[in-house]
Amino acid sequence: MRSNFLFTLPLLIASIVVVTVASASFVQMLIQDSSVKSTTGIEKRISSDLLEGTPANFPVVARIGRPSRLMIPKINVDVGFEYVGLTGDGAMDVPKIPTDVAWFELGPRPGEIGSAVVAGHFGWKNGIAAAFDNLYKLQRGDKLYVVDETGTTTTFVVRGLRTYGENKNASDVFTSSDGESHLNLITCEGIWDQVGKSYSNRIVIFTDKATR
User: Fold this and answer.
1) Backbone angles phi, psi at 88, to 5 degrees
2) Is residue 130 one of the residues assigned to a domain?
3) Between these two residues, 26 and 203, which has the higher pLDDT value?
4) With contact defined as beta carbons under 8 Å apart, do 45 and 35 qualify?
5) What is the structure's pLDDT at 50?
6) Mapping DSSP to helix (H, G, I), strand (E, B) and coil, where does residue 125 land?
7) What is the distance between the alpha carbons of residues 5 and 198, in angstroms, rounded to a whole number?
8) What's the CATH code of the domain at 83?
9) Which residue from 19, 21, 131, 194 could staple onto 120, CB 3.0 to 4.6 Å apart?
10) pTM of the model
């Protein structure tokens, strides 16, 4: 890649409900528009109105540990996690280190109900290897593993890969309503735009928690 890395994924979503404690606590994130100027985050505008609560009828259950390592044997990935939230302009942040991945900590933890989202770099400058350089090689049925801070390993199975244009609505990356656990991996691909400091496409690997 060139001197700056731009990891963009514009979203046009009315609202997102992210489960933070399974069937207990939630955060509702309101996305206002898709015009984000960040050069370091996934381009999605989220309002500062974060509504948090615990429904009285729902039992509180223990949370899964925060992710520690991501392993994808097929593409020789064994990397650590950074925990990120939003940049000052409302974009999901990305890893500071090219060989790390970033978990969006305002959403579910990998293995919890909902769609956990992890971002990784592609095509780092000066030929330096990045965590998701070969993410595009994953296919349906491939397995990946997340080790959490307690040492527990959760297995995920690739369901599919989808390519998004720079301005494509990608609401399905951050949301799910099927009551299952998902892990979605995001990176860039395509042609580098020197002026806009961005790649032309985004790819997302959709995975589901293995049932056994």
Assistant:
1) -60, -25
2) yes
3) 203
4) yes
5) 33
6) helix
7) 7
8) 2.40.260.10
9) 131
10) 0.72
Torsion angle of C-alpha atoms 144, 148, 153, 155, degrees rounded to 10: -30
According to the 3-state scheme, what is the secondary structure of 41-62? CECCCEEEEEEEECCCCCCCCC
CA distances in angstroms from 96 to 101, 118, 140, 186, listed in the order given? 9, 13, 29, 15
**Comparison of pLDDT for 148 and 49, the residue scoring more:** 148
Instruction: Locate 127 and state its tokens.
Output: 């030929």
pLDDT at 173 over 80: yes
**pLDDT, mean over the chain:** 74
Please give the pLDDT value at position 29. 31
Q: Is residue 11 part of a domain?
A: no
What range does the domain containing 90 cover? Answer: 16-52+65-209
State which amino acid sits at residue 72. Answer: I
The H-assigned helical ranges of the chain are: 171-174
**pLDDT score at 61:** 59
How many folded domains does the chain comprise? 1
Task: Determine the Cα–Cα distance for residues 115 and 206; give it in Å rounded to an integer.
Answer: 9
The span from the CA of 119 to the CA of 121, in Å, is 7
In this structure, is residue 191 part of a structural domain?
yes
pLDDT at 126: 76
Cα–Cα distance for residue pair 14/59, rounded to 1 Å: 28
Report yes or no on 69 lying in a domain: yes
